């Protein structure tokens, strides 16, 4: 692998990591809010 390819893959990897972590956090937050809303009393 050339130096340019190595640099490109490092940049792609380091930019993908925060996106994967933040999207995973968002998915877990949405699932938790949905589960909590199931147990909520719907009558006001």
Molecular structure report:
With 44 residues, this protein is mostly helical. The model has no long low-confidence stretch (mean pLDDT 90). The protein has one helix and no strands.
Tell me the fraction of residues in β-strands, as a range: under 5%
Secondary-structure element series: H
Distance between the termini: 64 Å
Q: Over the alpha carbons, how many angstroms does the gyration radius reach?
A: 19 Å
Briefly say what this structure is:
With 44 residues, the chain is an all-alpha fold. 82% of the residues lie in helices and 0% in strands. It has one helix at 3-38.
Question: Key features?
Answer:
rod-shaped, mainly alpha, 44 residues
List strands and helices in order, with pairings.
Layout lengths: L2 H36 L6
């Amino acid at each position: 692998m050339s130096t340019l390819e190595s640099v490109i893959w490092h940049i792609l990897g380091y930019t993908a990591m925060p996106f994967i972590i933040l999207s995973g956090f968002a998915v877990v937050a949405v699932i938790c809010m949905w589960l909590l809303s199931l147990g909520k009393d719907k009558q006001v």
